[in-house]
Amino acid sequence: MERQTRQSADIPKWSALLVEAVNKPGLIMKAYSTFHSYSLGNQLLALVQCQMRGLQPGPINTFPKWRELGRHVKRGERALMLCMPITCKRRDETADEGADGEGTFTSFAYKARWFVLTQTEGEDLQPQVIPEWEAQRALAALGIELIPFDNIDGNSQGFARKRQIAINPVAQLPHKTLFHEIAHVLLHTSEGDFTDTEQTPRNLREVEAESVALLCCEALNLEGADYCRGYIQNWLYQGIGYDADAIPEKSAQKIFRAADQILRAGRPTKERSAEYAN
């Protein structure tokens, strides 16, 4: 009973944050548009080449684009080949003399210009040190495994698969993405503790996961609240629009419980024991 009282003490503050998340202007991270969105065919082509060469699949980019991101292609690495459209001019020989009979058409050519993340080198992202919360401790307590990021889409910041999550090595805010993906495991995967009997719509799943990330960032005084609001508003707009009641009460309760579980799981054992004792 005392534990429930302690847990619910933050609910009014968190409720206000959710209302603010819907109504206060937010930002969309540039990370979601940093990489080119490759066609499914090119993604499969890149995956096959990675498999043939024994490369870890991951985000792909050209030599100059990796350099812009602060990474450099390793000496001796061979570029991956993708199919790219080429616009060509053609002249209509049947057109009247003097008339502009030129037109354009698109052809496709295979060019070797792309490199996967593991073919590059640069300063690795250092995890943010949070004295009162540790990611590895939280993952172990929640029974979640961190696996390598193997998504070709470099704009994807991370993903969750059942009890596994992966974070893009070049994610803009790794800690925010970590909270988001852990929330997906707890709330939406088949083995999650809070899975609905009916599948939650995609837009609401993203709103719930990012709302958990927002609460965790705010609770630990970490950067990311503005971007959380922008992400939440973007998915609400696609689904049910903006208003203070846009996040259903049932979702709000799931969000509060998941955020509380994540925060507790990452705290030192002594601190967690003290909380349960109070």
Largest sheet strand order = 1-4-3
The 3D shape can be described as: globular
Average pLDDT confidence is 78
Strand-residue proportion: 15-25%
| Radius of gyration, in angstroms, nearest whole number | 23 Å
Could you describe the largest sheet, including whether it forms a barrel?
Answer: 3 strands, antiparallel
Q: How are helices and strands ordered from N to C?
A: HHHEHEEEEHEEEHHHHH
Helicity range of the residues?
Answer: 40-55%
Overview of this protein structure:
The chain has 278 residues and is α+β, with helices and mostly antiparallel strands. 44% of the residues lie in helices and 17% in strands. It is built from ten helices and eight strands. The protein has a three-stranded antiparallel beta sheet with strand order 1-4-3. The protein is globular. Residues 1-8, 97-101, 191-197 and 272-278 have low confidence and may be disordered.
Describe, in short, the structure shown.
This protein has 278 residues and is of the alpha+beta class. It is built from ten helices and eight strands. The strands form three sheets. The chain has a three-stranded antiparallel beta sheet with strand order 1-4-3. The chain has a three-stranded mixed beta sheet with strand order 6-8-7, with helices on one face. A two-stranded antiparallel sheet has the order 2-5.
Keywords, separated by commas or semicolons:
3-stranded antiparallel sheet; 3-stranded mixed sheet; 17% strand; globular
List the helices and strands and how they pair.
Layout: H1 2-8, H2 11-23, H3 40-53, E1 60-62, H4 63-68, E2 71-73, E3 80-91, E4 102-116, E5 120-122, H5 135-142, E6 145-146, E7 158-161, E8 164-167, H6 174-187, H7 202-219, H8 225-239, H9 249-265, H10 269-277
Parallel strand pairs: 6-8
Antiparallel strand pairs: 1-4, 2-5, 3-4, 7-8
Helix pairs in contact: 2-8, 5-9, 6-7, 6-9, 7-8, 7-9
